[in-house]
Structure to design on (459 residues):
């Protein structure tokens, strides 16, 4: 079969016209260049280099492919999209898999260093102004199910999947910006209490957190990070934190010192109270007991541990500082801020599993799995940055998650034309798409100083 190539002056249909337009921006800022420079997978080049094939894997994620096998349907036939990203073609999915399998443990820190360079160059999390606002980091782990023959694949905790085997994804999110600071892969039996400190250390290295920045950084972590060792380590590092005590027995005991319980209007039956005899830690903390009724009529208890002042927590949840002397609104503010962690790491992990197919991309070799996860980390951040870039002309995109960005924005029909003997690119978005008009405004602003033009038309 004759291979089809887009030539200058020709026009080609694509299902990913917006993504093709973004390709012009990403080429101009040379987003993928640090990976080409740092990551050296030892594999013979026949038609495409190992770096080319890593870019194919990453680009296929941005098309919404939920596994390598979908590359042959979504990316490989889409010559317009490839050309818009400066590529002359796309490797076959089995070849991409071979390149990932050729990765060694030495290639993982190479890719991590490249992603650190990219993150520092383009992220808002790295440029955060610590003098004006708190940096908020959410840390969590989530299961990545895999076959029993995969390296470091063990039984562990996998939500609603009893006796399942797999690995664990450890993640730190800069929650103000929805950006992934670091992703790490661990054996399936590893829990947050075992990996929290190295996970936070890597995040601190990426963000270059010194003592002053750590003092303006809030760590928001579930009970897996609430052991005495972890809490004292975070306090010794000068972080601010809000976490849940690891031991439920200790929580019930601490709750006995509560003198008054206050109902939480947001959750039926839940009550909060101030622990008057707190457990001692390396620094002074405020401890808030939370109790909720169980099916048998008794209460279940949890205790939040925090270094944040009453004034700080009220500002963080958008309430007036004047309430700082009133016990009930302050306690409820602590609980509300902790509850918001579900919109941080938990929501972002869920979005990546659904949109980027994280749970479907299983590799037998641990190094290959780590490379896949790191490429997905880059894909996630690029989607978040693209949302930010486009929101100037399309403000409703600010509320779109990973799945909606892939489904409703990146997947938009259009035509791409390259002018003869020039690098000028014309992109026509399908005017029948309800978002085309709005997104075209954002794209024109984004590509204002490039050789690309954006228009609407019938496709």
């Amino acid at each position: 079969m004759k291979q089809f190539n887009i030539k200058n002056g020709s026009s080609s249909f694509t299902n990913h016209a917006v993504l093709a337009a973004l390709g012009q921006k990403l080429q101009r800022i040379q987003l993928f260049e640090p990976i080409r420079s740092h990551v050296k997978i030892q594999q013979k080049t026949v038609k495409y280099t190992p770096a080319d094939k890593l870019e194919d894997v990453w680009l296929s994620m941005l098309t919404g492919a939920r596994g390598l096998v979908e590359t042959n349907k979504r990316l490989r036939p889409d010559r317009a999209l490839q050309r818009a990203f400066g590529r002359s073609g796309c490797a076959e999915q089995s070849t991409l898999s071979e390149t990932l399998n050729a990765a060694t443990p030495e290639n993982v820190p190479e890719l991590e260093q490249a992603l650190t360079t990219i993150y520092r160059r383009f992220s808002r999390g790295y440029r955060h102004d610590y003098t004006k606002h708190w940096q908020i980091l959410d840390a969590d782990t989530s299961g990545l199910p895999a076959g029993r023959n995969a390296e470091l694949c063990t039984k562990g905790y996998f939500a609603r999947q009893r006796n399942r085997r797999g690995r664990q994804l450890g993640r730190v999110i800069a929650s103000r910006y929805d950006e992934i600071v670091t992703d790490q892969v661990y054996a399936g039996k590893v829990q947050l209490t075992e990996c929290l400190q190295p996970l936070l250390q890597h995040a601190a290295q990426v963000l270059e957190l010194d003592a002053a920045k750590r003092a303006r950084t809030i760590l928001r972590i579930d009970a897996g990070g609430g052991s005495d060792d972890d809490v004292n380590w975070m306090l010794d590092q000068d972080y601010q934190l809000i976490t849940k005590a690891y031991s439920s027995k200790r929580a019930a005991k601490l709750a006995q010192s509560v003198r008054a319980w206050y109902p939480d209007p947001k959750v039926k039956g839940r009550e909060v109270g101030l622990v008057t005899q707190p457990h001692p830690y390396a620094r002074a903390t405020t401890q808030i007991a939370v109790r909720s009724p169980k099916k048998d009529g008794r209460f279940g208890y949890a205790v939040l541990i925090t270094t944040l002042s009453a004034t700080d927590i009220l500002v963080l949840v958008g309430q007036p500082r004047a309430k700082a002397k009133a016990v009930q609104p302050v306690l409820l503010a602590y609980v509300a801020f902790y509850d918001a962690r579900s919109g941080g790491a938990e929501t972002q992990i869920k979005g990546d599993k659904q949109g980027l197919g994280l749970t479907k991309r299983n590799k037998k070799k641990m190094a290959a799995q780590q490379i896949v996860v790191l490429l997905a980390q880059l894909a996630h951040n690029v989607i978040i940055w693209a949302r930010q870039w486009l929101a100037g002309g399309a403000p409703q995109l600010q509320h779109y998650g990973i799945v909606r960005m892939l489904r409703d924005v990146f997947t938009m029909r259009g035509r791409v034309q390259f002018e003869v003997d020039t690098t000028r690119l014309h992109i026509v978005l399908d005017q029948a798409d309800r978002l085309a008009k709005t997104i075209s405004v954002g794209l024109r602003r984004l590509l204002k100083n490039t050789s690309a033009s954006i228009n609407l038309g019938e496709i």
Q: What stands out?
A: The first strand starts at residue 11 and ends at 14. Residues 134-347 form one domain.
